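SEQUENCE, STRUCTURE TOKENS:
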Amino acid sequence: MILKRLVKASANKSLKQENLQLAVFTAFNILANYKFPLNEALGVSRVCMSFLSKLFRWERGRQKSGYDKMLLCGAMWPIKFDTYLLKFPEGSEISPHTDKVVSGKHYRLNIVLKNADEGGEFICSNPIYETKRIKFFRPDVSEHQVSKIVKGNRYLLSIGWVKNT
């Protein structure tokens, strides 16, 4: 009898947590996709709406070179940062470039989750720290690139921030 009550209470608690998570996720999705005056009434800024509309959705990378990115989290205050999951499918590559910022110093920490079977090497002119799986660099001042993925897919977690000077 006591065991049955514990199982039932546990199931109800689990169900309540799932419902709460679903409600919060649904509310964020509604806010991210709603384009009417409700946003202004709630004080939801365009930056916030842009952020929410990109959260947990795949989109093409900035370099238009075949890689995809998914925004996992980010903030504008107290320090501007972003965290992406990046996918480099077979055939993708990133040409040498730098990432300009309006002000401050841009830092990026890339953690390689899965290397491609062939190709996909990260090349940076002046890394701060680099191992096989960890790449820490200043993308605003160091030219960097990714060689062509010949076979397989490459995945990485990319965390970037801008430190004001």
